């Protein structure tokens, strides 16, 4: 189906009048796709679709022993409980506020450095590095720069491999490995095991786990009967790094693309920031609930550019079931085309228009209770990282907009590429202008004009 599978499937289901449910076969795999909130609700909340079909690449890359692909039995439940308590609880998310703040500070400085040196800012790499630093610190605490770089390379390669179509997933003949995906996954899994096991060993040798806040230290200090064996711990820690890095970075890149494309919306968000925070201090997590318009922008981007347009990883029917009166046999793969739902004109007024105001007029939750907009999925396998992801995105966006005015550096290309997440096909390039004298944190409109290092602020008008 390629890099625009969500669009092709959407067009197909519309042309066949099968938005509620469309079925087809891919090799030996039976697939159903819902592009409708009602049947999506039945699939995502139904007890029958509680497993995931596991791709060979995901299996070899250890994810079968992590939350995302573990079958929905006792082991999976215990992992979700553990993650909910020690990685994603509101208290843990609040504790990580310092890390989020420090990382965004580094990014803000990095953005300005790039602007001064090159006259243009390519955001993607800055966001990916920031996202990686933030998630690595919450999972491992401090780690060496060389370890972080190795993690970055491993996440990148893992994304490439999992995103790739592999014939063997659909035509199970053991000897096939057309693109060498299996071989490459085995090599990558070996690197992951070596590196993560080494980090675990180092932490054990340091001894002192008390008072440490990172997920690894918490896992190591669990009572004997709850503790994971080392190989399962490697899988769970690796999954957190893998899932937590690019989802946040890609979403923020889409948001910033919209910000530079719509200067009026940017100005409105900045007015809100100035009214709530003023110009004498930085934005903090505790300010976010007051920033209704900023939150509406994030929702509108999640609607127009959902990071998982097909909800990333599908569901598997564990027993026979009926969906919308159709009989679905056990073993069927079920997908929800969230992109089709969020672009359906019978659900959303002017779905192709970017208009955050729609979420001021109507409060729609993005957390999975309203299937018109469920970018984190819903039901038992809903994304456990949704609150952490959103908290990070809100704070970072608020800091970016508070500090700088953002403009286009070249035309913004909104073409998409669906890999594991929905990425911008062409990286975004912007220019930034200081809104304040950073040393004094006092608003000075003239400073804004004068601080354009490439001389000229035409794009900001
Ligand atoms: C913008 C940020 C994010 C988006 C849009 C997103 C989206 C998703 C989606 C669509 C699913 C599938 C849900 C379903 O089947 O119903 C999912 C699952 C998952 N996500 Fe996220 N995610 C984000 C951030 C994160 C973060 C930060 C982490 C961890 C650090 C994370 C960890 C996971 C895990 C472990 C699963 C598998 C859950 C299971 O199968 O039980 N996600 N995510």
TrEMBL record:
Cofactor field: heme
GO annotation (BP), single: secondary metabolite biosynthetic process
InterPro entries per the UniProt record, alphabetical: Cyt_P450, Cyt_P450_CS, Cyt_P450_E_grp-I, Cyt_P450_sf, Cytochrome_P450_78A
Swiss-Prot/TrEMBL keywords: Heme, Iron, Metal-binding, Monooxygenase, Oxidoreductase
TM regions (residue ranges): none
Binding annotation for heme: 383
PROSITE patterns named in the record: CYTOCHROME_P450 (PS00086)
GO MF: heme binding; iron ion binding; monooxygenase activity; oxidoreductase activity, acting on paired donors, with incorporation or reduction of molecular oxygen
Keyword DNA repair appears in the UniProt entry: no
Gene3D superfamilies: Cytochrome P450
Family under the similarity heading: Belongs to the cytochrome P450 family.
Name of the protein described by the UniProt record: Cytochrome P450
């Amino acid at each position: 189906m390629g890099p625009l599978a969500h669009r092709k499937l959407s067009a197909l289901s519309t042309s066949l009048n099968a938005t509620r449910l469309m079925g087809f076969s891919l090799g030996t795999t039976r697939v159903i796709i819902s592009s409708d909130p009602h049947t999506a609700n039945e699939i995502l909340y139904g007890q029958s679709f509680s497993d995931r079909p596991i791709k060979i690449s995901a299996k070899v890359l250890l994810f079968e022993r992590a939350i995302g692909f573990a079958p929905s039995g006792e082991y999976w439940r215990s992992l979700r409980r553990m993650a909910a308590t020690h990685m994603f609880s509101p208290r843990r998310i609040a504790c990580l506020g310092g890390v989020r703040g420090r990382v965004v500070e580094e990014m803000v400085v990095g953005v300005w450095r790039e602007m001064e040196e090159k006259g243009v800012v390519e955001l993607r790499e800055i966001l990916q590095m920031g996202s990686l630093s933030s998630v690595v610190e919450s999972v491992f605490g401090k780690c060496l720069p060389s370890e972080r770089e190795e993690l970055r390379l491993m996440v990148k390669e893992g994304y490439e491999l999992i995103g790739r179509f592999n014939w063997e997933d659909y035509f199970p003949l053991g000897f096939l490995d057309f693109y060498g995906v299996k071989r490459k996954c085995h090599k990558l899994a070996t690197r992951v095991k070596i590196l993560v096991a080494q980090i675990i060993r180092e932490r054990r040798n340091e001894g002192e786990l008390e008072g440490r806040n990172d997920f690894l230290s918490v896992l190591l200090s669990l009572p004997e009967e709850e503790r994971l064996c080392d190989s399962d711990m490697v899988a769970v820690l690796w999954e957190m790094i893998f899932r937590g890095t690019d989802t946040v970075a890609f979403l923020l890149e889409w948001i910033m693309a919209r910000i530079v494309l719509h200067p009026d919306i940017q100005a409105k968000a900045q007015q809100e920031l100035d009214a709530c925070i003023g110009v004498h201090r930085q934005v903090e997590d505790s300010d976010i609930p007051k920033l209704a318009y900023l939150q509406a922008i994030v929702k509108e981007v999640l609607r127009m550019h959902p990071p998982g347009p097909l909800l990333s990883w599908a569901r598997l029917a564990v027993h026979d079931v009926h969906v919308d009166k159709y009989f679905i046999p056990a073993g069927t793969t079920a997908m929800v085309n969230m992109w089709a739902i969020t672009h359906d004109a019978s659900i959303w007024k002017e779905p192709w228009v970017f208009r955050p105001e729609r979420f001021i007029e109507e409060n729609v939750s993005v957390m999975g209770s309203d299937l018109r907009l469920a970018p984190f999925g819903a039901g038992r396998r809903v994304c456990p990282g949704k609150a952490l992801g959103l908290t990070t995105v809100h704070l970072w966006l608020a800091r970016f907009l508070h500090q700088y005015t953002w403009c286009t550096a070249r035309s913004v290309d909104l073409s998409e590429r669906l890999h594991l997440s929905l990425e911008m096909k062409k990286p975004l390039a912007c220019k930034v202008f200081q809104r304040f004298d950073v040393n004094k944190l006092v608003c000075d409109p003239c400073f804004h004009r004068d601080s354009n290092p490439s001389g000229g602020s035409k794009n900001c008008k």
